[in-house]
Specification:
Layout: E1 2-4, H1 7-19, E2 24-29, H2 35-47, E3 50-55, H3 75-84, E4 89-91, H4 95-98, H5 124-139, E5 143-147, H6 151-163, E6 169-173, H7 193-198, H8 201-214, H9 219-231, E7 236-244, E8 259-267, E9 270-278
Parallel strand pairs: 1-4, 2-3, 2-5, 3-4, 5-6
Antiparallel strand pairs: 7-8, 8-9
The structure holds adenosine monophosphate.
């Protein structure tokens, strides 16, 4: 497995693989790997001849006062985990390589970036869309793999790729969870033992909302169900709980699926997000 820290090295490795006729798969990440990241790599490995994993903690998607400095970083561990998953290339650029002299161009996906997490993290999805477009331009994959855990991010990226005619297929991968139901996240490393014990309530709350939808409930009723479960867990400070149409993130009160029910909540100083997708065919 090769490690590239510079853009030209990364391009050269991908060009060589493509010259051999390999299908190229890309897994963009911020590192601090857990089984969720590894599931994306495994899927890419199964489907593509050449797998590039990018590891870059992107400063432009963190707001002032957010956890850019304290975001967990352990490149040596990540490198060996990516290698064990059979990645061919890890692209791990320093920030100066990605933003030499700053950056004047920003991508904003209107509408989709302005709801749910959008108002609570101003500029976050602009940072994500911009860095993902750069990573796709640098690694030029045939397929790029993203987790449903960050559902809004997935929808924003799909729309950006469609609007900008970026020639890549976006593959959505299911959320990997602990046995407790807690969605794996690099930020779980910041949770204390007590917070870890409380954390699965977020998924339980979303599951309660999903049940309401499966029984024919509408968005508002599902959201009430999520809030009711979390209100019983004082450790949680809920930011939002919203049920929206999975493709457009539009909100309406037409009862029943398909809906994505998503929430963000603080547990101590750690902000957790999670979602449950209720598909069209899952009515009870
Ligand atoms: P991150 O390093 O947090 O930026 O995540 C990199 C990729 O891994 C994103 O596409 C995430 O959606 C995905 N991911 C993060 N957590 C999970 C999880 N628990 N299950 C599946 N995918 C995940």
């Amino acid at each position: 497995m090769e490690v590239a820290r510079r853009i030209p090295e990364c391009r050269e490795a991908v060009t060589t693989a493509r010259g051999r006729g390999e299908l190229v798969g890309c897994v963009p990440t911020m590192g601090a790997f857990h089984a969720g990241h590894l599931s994306l790599m495994r899927r890419a490995r199964a489907e593509c001849g050449f797998v590039v994993v990018t590891v870059f903690v992107n400063p432009t998607q963190f707001g002032p006062g957010e956890d850019y400095q304290s975001y967990p970083r352990d490149f040596e561990r990540d490198r060996s985990l990516a290698e064990a998953e059979g990645a061919d290339l890890v692209f791990h650029p320093p920030a100066e390589e990605m933003y030499p002299g700053g950056a004047a161009t920003t991508i904003h996906v209107s509408g989709l970036a302005d709801v749910m997490c959008g108002p609570y993290r101003p500029g976050h999805f602009d940072g994500v869309a911009t860095v993902v477009s750069k990573l796709l331009n640098i690694t030029t994959p045939d397929r790029a793999y993203f987790g449903e855990k960050d559902y809004q991010q997935l929808v924003v990226i799909r729309r950006m790729v469609a609007d900008l005619d970026i020639p890549v297929e976006i593959i959505a991968c299911p959320t990997v969870r602990e046995d407790s139901g807690l969605a794996l996240s690099s930020r779980n490393l910041h949770l204390s033992a007590e917070e870890m014990a409380a954390a699965p309530a977020l998924q339980r709350a979303l599951a309660a909302g999903a049940d309401v939808v499966r029984r024919g409930g509408a968005a508002g009723q599902a959201e009430d169900a999520v809030r009711a479960v979390l209100a019983a867990v004082p450790a949680f400070r809920l930011q939002y709980a919203e049920a929206r149409r999975p493709d457009t993130l539009e909100r309406d009160e037409v009862p029943g699926p398909p809906l994505v029910i998503a929430a963000a909540a603080y547990l101590g100083k750690t902000r957790l997000i999670d979602n449950v997708i209720v598909h069209e065919d899952s009515r009870r």
